[in-house]
Amino acid sequence: MSLYVDIEKTLGAFHLRAQFESGAQTLALLGASGCGKSMTLKCIAGIETPDAGRIALDGRVLFDSAAHINLSPQRRRVGYLFQQYALFPNMTVFQNIATGAHARHKARRRESVAEKLAMLRLSDIAHLRPHQLSGGQQQRVALARILASEPQAILLDEPFSALDSYLKWQLELELSDALAAFHGVRMWVSHDRDEIFRNCGEICIMEEGKTQPVREKHALFDSPGTVGAARLSGCKNYAAARPASIPRHVTLPEWNLCLETEEDVPPDICQVGIRVHSLRLCEPGAPNAIPCTVARAVEDVLSVILMLRVQGALPGAPLLRFELPKAQWQGDSAAFCIQICPKDILLLG
Amino acid sequence: MDWYPLYNSLRIAAISTFVTFFFGIFSAYYIAKTPRVIKGLLDVVLTLPLVLPPTVVGYLLLRVLGPKRLIGAWVLAVFDTKLVMTWWSAIFATVVVSFPLMYRTARGAFEAFDPALAYAGQTLGLSNSYIFWRIRLPYCRQGILAGAVLSFARALGEYGATSMLAGYTPGRTATISTTVYQLWRTDNDALAFKWVMINIAISFVVLMAVNMLERRERAQKEVRRA
Fold this sequence. Notes:
The complex is a heterodimer of chains A (349) and B (226). Chain A has helices at residues 37-45, 73-76, 93-102, 109-119, 135-148, 165-180, 193-199, 217-222, 227-232; strands at residues 3-11, 14-22, 27-30, 52-57, 60-64, 69-70, 78-81, 153-157, 185-190, 202-207, 210-211, 215-216, 237-240, 242-243, 249-252, 257-260, 271-274, 279-282, 289-299, 303-310, 320-325, 336-340, 346-348. With 349 residues, chain A is an alpha+beta fold. Chain B has one domain (4-225): Orthogonal Bundle (MetI-like fold), CATH 1.10.3720.
């Protein structure tokens, strides 16, 4: 059960360079909109053709530019869950799912469809047409249709982008259940790091058409390694950095600070990342204390977001984002100290 | 009153619509897939009959179908049949003149088709012809039907090229449009008026049908979007 992808494609000024291998866990492709995630999935499904490279599924070559192999989408057995689900509007739910079973075993088509209807709780709405369904039902039909075609891989392209946010949670639980029952390669494309973290085991970050090496999700969130990966993993604070003269210390020239780190600082460090939730209030003089003044306070639903100016920072230095529960915020703009644990400083190349 | 012109006009329009229907759909479908330069060129060539004067179309057709011309001479030699001055000669004229209407409306309908539906079909293992006949055509049905009705109406009203290719022989090649001209020329005003009213009535019904089809299509698109 593996998918190997190593492809290149140029479209005008955009250059796609995707290289990764998936295993038994759901592999996430995490990146901003327009970074080439969907294009990569389309190349795997055979809807788009890469300029060069190789794609193999369970050892079966789907595309190989050197060997002039380019299987049609029909022969790839790769299921694709489209953003808008792409249900056939002229067919009922039953007929839509039946098209999935069409190409496979003709003999037990009806049973296969009935089985998928029951599995995804669609039996009651089998006679309806797509425009009569809710977004969540449409998604289940699309998934049932894919499962009926018995693919060896399922690609999910931003599965929740077409839905209102209050509907997402229930659907996410259902989708992850349905996927868990599928024994094949699973790929999940999204720009939402929380959704990715909850549903995937391994993550491949994609930036401006280029993929980074696949990493286990906890490892990636603990040490993203690059600014792009840190940003996609939700880190909000960045500052330019260089190794300090003392070992295991990093100098932040913009903030005029020297902070202790847990590991040795690599010589090629460019920036540090500091996650909002790893900052704590502390007494002045505590280890890794950062004295600050409040530049701006923005009230959020459950907390107050404080934009802090580091004392002694250079003019134009980035502000530090920090959040306090509303109860702890008195509304005064007095100076205070915040602290970061050495292990929580992200060293970014 | 001799009803032959009505019968002749309707059968010419029906046969020519049948021909342009398939020809228009397949041209629209395959030309949409060609590279941009070729597409632009073919588009112009295929739409040309829409803007050329019908007499120019008639002239060009006579240049190839006339009994002493390339195709006309060959058919005459092999099948011993003249391609012009018979009732079905008008079909050549109406097909060429009404083709752009079918082609352009079908192309518009195909362009509105969501490509994700075809991709979904392919990844599900459905053959390309299944996708074309069972998904793409039903999706574009209203637009294609509107195109067929329009090209039927155009074929029914064809005069210029038809009169050049089929002429006017009462009871043989006469159509409504050539009959009206002939009756007016021979000062038979009352009968000419009758045929004019018949023609207006048919065109009225046809255009109502087009409007209805287009309204239904719009309504369906809105339902889909919602």
